[in-house]
Q: What sequence folds into this?
């Protein structure tokens, strides 16, 4: 085994997150530090992509507030992520759904996957 991979595996944070993919709606609870206070803020949106593997894996979440959109990239290995909730499973065919950036209104909706 490569020495770098060995060190990464030894010092990796073991976070238990639900299994989600692109198109799913999730809520990320993450810690924000303001001065000497710390609070948990929620970021709810659609997962646009998952990227990377192991310790360097990240996921991008797009949140809509009225007509204004915010995208945020979260690393899986971040100690600031408290928990992730899976709200809805979306039915999409692609792994990266960047086409949502150009859509507005009803056309920007994703069908829900029923089990």
A:
């Amino acid at each position: 085994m490569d020495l770098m991979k060995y060190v990464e595996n030894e010092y990796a944070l073991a976070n238990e997150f639900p299994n989600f993919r692109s198109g799913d709606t999730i809520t990320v609870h993450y810690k924000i530090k303001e001065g000497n206070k710390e609070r948990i803020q929620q970021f709810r949106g659609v997962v646009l992509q998952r990227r990377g593997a192991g310790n360097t894996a990240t996921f991008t979440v797009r949140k809509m507030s009225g007509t204004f959109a915010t995208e945020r990239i979260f690393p899986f290995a971040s100690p600031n992520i408290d928990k992730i909730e899976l709200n809805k499973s979306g039915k999409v065919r692609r792994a990266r759904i960047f086409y949502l950036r150009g859509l507005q209104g009803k056309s920007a909706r994703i069908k829900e996957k029923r089990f």
User: Anything to note?
Assistant: The chain is about 5% helix and 45% strand. The chain has a mean pLDDT of 89.
